[in-house]
């Protein structure tokens, strides 16, 4: 069994596309995080909802994707960059699990803000794990970009 897990939250599909490419190239299991309350599909309304949640340090409860991570040693964690930080469903996932001794690899999609504070936020929540450098993608993900990143960080099947 491949002991790699790719966990992600995606509202508009961008982070999902990156997660799918990582899963294809690593052979890891894919797990989508689904919060108990959906965000609006209207961009401006979703931004207001998210801004309110992030300002309160809110972490979403999940109805799917929160299963055990015990059987996985390497966990890729993906989020859109929302206001320079993690989407609340991803924060909820991080707070629900013990990552001690696991290798955690962040990835994100963004509209120009790069990682923002996402890598720092993951490092804070997973303080007893090994954190490898992540990838931040603006726009369409290129398979060769993912392959080059995986090689650079020394990921091996």
TrEMBL record:
Domain Flavodoxin-like: 4-153
InterPro entries registered for this protein in UniProt: Flavodoxin/NO_synth, Flavoprotein-like_sf
Span of the signal peptide: none
Domain of life the protein comes from: Bacteria
Gene3D superfamilies listed in its UniProt record: 3.40.50.360
A Pfam family per the record: Flavodoxin_4
Molecular function terms from GO: FMN binding; oxidoreductase activity, acting on NAD(P)H
UniProt name for this protein: Flavodoxin
Organism: Candidatus Galacturonatibacter soehngenii
Lineage: Bacteria, Bacillati, Bacillota, Clostridia, Lachnospirales
